[in-house]
Amino acid sequence: MQNHLVFTVIATDRPGLVERIADIIASLEGNWIESSMARLGGEFAGIVRVGIAAERSDELVELLRKLSDDGIDITLRSDKTGEEAPKGTAAHLDLVSQDHPGILRDITHVLSKQGVSIEHLETSVAAGSMHGEALFKASADLRLPVGLDPADLSDALQETAGDMMADVNLVD
Hints:
Layout: E1 2-12, H1 17-27, E2 31-40, E3 43-53, H2 57-66, E4 73-78, E5 90-98, H3 103-113, E6 117-127, E7 134-143, H4 150-163, E8 166-171
Antiparallel strand pairs: 1-3, 1-4, 2-3, 5-7, 5-8, 6-7
Helix pairs in contact: 3-4
């Protein structure tokens, strides 16, 4: 039987971090299933899901936790044996706005109020047009609850986007 372990990793960015983790997983014949990792402000952060034989799970967790001796912090968040199939409609959200505090709070408030789950989110702030204003950009993969019409969610998002002069595009 296989266990699926989900863990986070954070460390000061340096070459070889992913290799160290991948080496530990492979040495126990574990399977690196999926991950999302990035360098943020000089730190390396990520979340990883692996599959491993149930009898080797504890050994993997122990070896990963020992990485903290080298400044690589691992936090185990799950050890489920399977994965639930997502329910509801998938949608994608793109947002661009002149940067100011509270953009993500306002958009995620609408999503939360509608019962929408964020499956993947990427944000950034980049230089804007020739005036040099900073632009906030967000891209998210969403899971709408069963029964929520994407058009209704789009209307709610557009109302909030209008209040903050943002361009929001929802594609289902």
